[in-house]
Give the backbone structure.
Amino acid sequence: MVTIYDIATKANVSPMTVSRVINKSGKVSEATRTKVENAINELNYIPNSSARSLTSKKSKILSLVITDITNPFFTKVARGAEDKAKQMGYSLLLCNSDEDIDKESDYINMLVSTGVGGVLITPSEDKSRKNLRTLNKYNIPFILLDRKIEGINCDAVHGDSQEGTRKILEHLINKGHRKIAIINGPLDISTARERQKAYIETLNAYNLPVHEELILQSHYKNKDSNSDISKLLSVKLEKRPTAIFAANNFIAINTIKELRKINIRVPEDISVVCFDDLDPSIDLNPFLTVVAQPAYHFGFTGAQMLIERIEKTAPPEFRKIVLPSKLIVRNSSAHN
Amino acid sequence: MVTIYDIATKANVSPMTVSRVINKSGKVSEATRTKVENAINELNYIPNSSARSLTSKKSKILSLVITDITNPFFTKVARGAEDKAKQMGYSLLLCNSDEDIDKESDYINMLVSTGVGGVLITPSEDKSRKNLRTLNKYNIPFILLDRKIEGINCDAVHGDSQEGTRKILEHLINKGHRKIAIINGPLDISTARERQKAYIETLNAYNLPVHEELILQSHYKNKDSNSDISKLLSVKLEKRPTAIFAANNFIAINTIKELRKINIRVPEDISVVCFDDLDPSIDLNPFLTVVAQPAYHFGFTGAQMLIERIEKTAPPEFRKIVLPSKLIVRNSSAHN
DNA sequence: ATAACTATTGTTACCGATAACATCAAAATA
DNA sequence: TATTTTGATGTTATCGGTAACAATAGTTAT
């Protein structure tokens, strides 16, 4: 392990001078600077950031805490955040909370523990408030991505769930659908609440009845075990909806799979649309009609705001950015 | 910031005793243990791992360095690694090298710097050897995933490029294809070399000619800029191949997009198959015929081996695990 | 009862870097 | 020339935790 003491010895200066060269702080003569720099290069020195953050409490490491690494929405967010971080000389650590509040807590503790400089987080649920408070307590700046948490005052980047939901429902309504079901995420996630609210409001606006049985609950994750969906849909054959609005991409995928199991065709028998786009392979066989959010910009903008907050160049008041979403019509939605 | 000194004061013991309780090391009486534990809970203590790793040089943090976070193959690897890490009480940090050796170096330095306990890495290219040497120098155990690097002796988990290539080519050959092109990744990545070698060997085994013009080079990443592919394919219209073997999923996606631009239909005009599966949305519209690798197990097994290495429960000699791949026939490959 | 041991707890030094202060020589000013 | 200022470098203490050793009290063996 090479330390500044090794460098100091080699360059015949004090460790402090080495530190100054490394951090470009204080005054160092041109001559000693080159001496030290040569020593650093020769010995292949890597600063020990444990030691560093122990005293200086600063760190050029950001973290992005997402809830599902297998969801293309989040990988695009990650890509955006990483690009900005890199551009500004920061590294980005990814943590996958898996929509699990305990995992999330573990990661937050770990990040506090290692002294991360700032956090971009998609909170797993409303209970995440506890974890955000922890970050506050340790003065670690953070940005809320995608989901809102009541009672937490901070910078945030969100999508427009209200507008997006309206757009995609109007698309269905224009295609003649009158009985539209929603399969939503858990209501302890803000986006699910907003999409549900917008769903009801939009139906009302078009004078369509809101049926309780057409409002279903699922989860945002990619796992198959929600056969309740298929059960519910197969039961009400006579008053079956003609279209389903899935609150995210994985719900849509699971829904379509379940529908197929019971031999209901999409879009011939029923249309399925959703929030959030799929990965690039969708282009091969354009299928799902979606409202896509600018995922990359969530990450990019979020990282930018976070770095400004860390470097104290951000305005004192917290900023709430709302990014627009876009309707992409493909083949999973048909005329009724 | 709560420290063990605060706990010590509150519990009326020495800091060292607190440390012993936290680490379950040494002897502590039941009475003091509970006293300390209560203090810890009351004060909401989070250990400072910078301080910790400064002395003890141990860390319960693993890192997974992958080359493309948007590739479902790697997100599945990540999921597997994370599950195992979690199960064993470790956290997993993800780093996305983006197939870029400089980014990779930056991340490795950062990881060394923060004192990571071990690294699972998919090296971006043969030049990564330098970065692996760095890990060796700092005694950080690592596991090579997916790709091989000459001259580096370590544990590794690989797929069977040879076998997988053979399987998928035989599938095409059985469908009557005789002129099969390969669009490969960069030859400074071991899997690309192996797939190319297996491609040639398999053609030889079936007494099929190997045409130099049918061996194309691209990159494993998901970006569109390889219109050279379309150029090359459009030129040789008369001696156009009847099937294309893409060395990974993104190459296949890009290839098909390029083919469509020039109005070549898949699979009617040309079959396209590839290594590595796509994300779950492929199930909606089964399209690409692939040889899928057990990505999740890459991560899971890799993490297991890494932890064994860290905890010194691994056998002294290095282990090379080869995981089998599986042919999944879908609709992108047709009879010739 | 005393030596010898064990269980439990405390003390000190140190990990590598940096903040804060100290030093010293050369340059600027009075 | 004497004094102040400035530039360049060094010294010391400290961050929070732990390894190594020290100390103390309570047990057991002799």
Observations:
- Chain A has twelve helices and twelve strands.
